[in-house]
Amino acid sequence: MGLQRGLSQFDLTNIIIGAIVGADIYIASALTAGLVGPFSIVLWVVAGLFAIAIALVFAYCSYYVPRVGGPFAYVSEAFDDFYGFLTGWSMWIAELLALPVFAIAFANYLQALIPLTPTAEVVVRGLFVAGLTLVNIVGVRAAGRLNDALTLIKLFPLLLLIVAGLGVFIIRPETVVANYIPLLPLGLDNASHALILIFWAYAGFELGTLPAGEVENPGKAIPRAIIAGMLIVSFFYVSTNFVLFGLVNWTELSQSTVPLVVAGTVLFGSAGAIIMTVGALFSVAGSDESGMLGSARLAYAMAIDGLFPRAFARLHPRYNTPYVVLIVQGIIAFVLSSIGNLPGLISFAVLNLAFSFLLTCFALIVLRKDDKANLRGQHLLPLAGIAICLFLLFSTTTFDKVAGGLVILAGIPIYLFYSPKEDIHHLKALFLSEEAVLVRRLEAREIYLANLLDIVRTVFQRIRRPDNRKPGGR
């Protein structure tokens, strides 16, 4: 018997926001400042529009294929398991590359509080990855209450930055004018590469799209929730960057590895630096925890389909989590954090994401059925998505194109080796059960900005409750 309780449009919006917003805002601004200067603010808007278009493609695919597995499931249904595997493989690589990015960012922000030697920096990255791997093996639900308590701690510094920064702009508008002129000091030569780095900050919706079977009135709720969630994220990102580039000159931002600490220092001195640093450390840790979990589940889904090593589907006897793939991911993340750099890792991750998004856009063209759904834009959106993905692929560096192509092609022999083998039927049935899917998706609400919306709604409902009582009621 199916679940009687469905997810509302608000619930879905909450989950989408939680899947996107995290540590990216603490990283990307400084990287793009040295490429295009204050013009970055325009690219944050453009990247948001790109992400909304592709997110809607995912939403519509989820409507037609209400199964767990995301793009792996969509493309497999539209074409076959081979293309589905390449989609899942490239997305797993992209999600895997995000893990060392957060380890590097964590060490950078910790260095703002405690000076670290090169050896100590490596140790911090190792402990960071090992700690989050352990948390995910023990089970993220055990950390749910802690995440609730830390949500406001993570969000407060950014809200403080936005409010205080806008206040400064009202009092001293000449500050904004001085820092935003000229808007494009370096020209547009590096604009496409900067857009790649910013687009990465909007990624995450691919892990937050729900199977339509759990959503009330999915034909309307899914696209509306996607649009609402992406608009909220875009507003939050653009506001933060508007304040950041207005407070600090782009030349100073481009030389910093901790841009929000610089802005906090401008506003509140050393106290502001500490507030921003602590917020960044909590946010980076929370983002990497959810990213590690999402990538592990993708690998686990492909393993129980017989397309990945069987060991990746091995569950811990006590905690019932895919501990083998979590340990493998942790080792890879630590190694990459020691040899990679932030722009290179992010750009390579976006190339792999764009490839998986491209196949998903083609899948919607095959999956759509005009006689069974009235989804607005389902004919134009995949075409727009294809154009966006091709632009993202083209905008990556030559090294990324060559290395990314080789990595994607490396998935072919893996598929050929594992595809003849049978899937793990009992694990597959358990993983795809409606109850298990719902529990996993509700866990995503423990993330960052999504929790704030839930808190605001709860408070608003309690304030209004007395007004809804009948006269004379108790």
TrEMBL record:
Localisation per UniProt entry: Cell membrane
InterPro entries: AA/rel_permease1, APC_superfamily
Membrane topology label: Multi-pass membrane protein
This protein's UniProt keywords: Cell membrane, Membrane, Transmembrane, Transmembrane helix
Domain of life of the native organism: Archaea
GO molecular function: transmembrane transporter activity
Chief place of localization: membrane
Transmembrane residue ranges: 12-34, 41-65, 85-110, 122-143, 149-171, 183-205, 225-248, 260-285, 291-308, 320-339, 345-367, 379-396, 402-418
GO CC annotation, single: plasma membrane
Protein's UniProt name: Amino acid permease
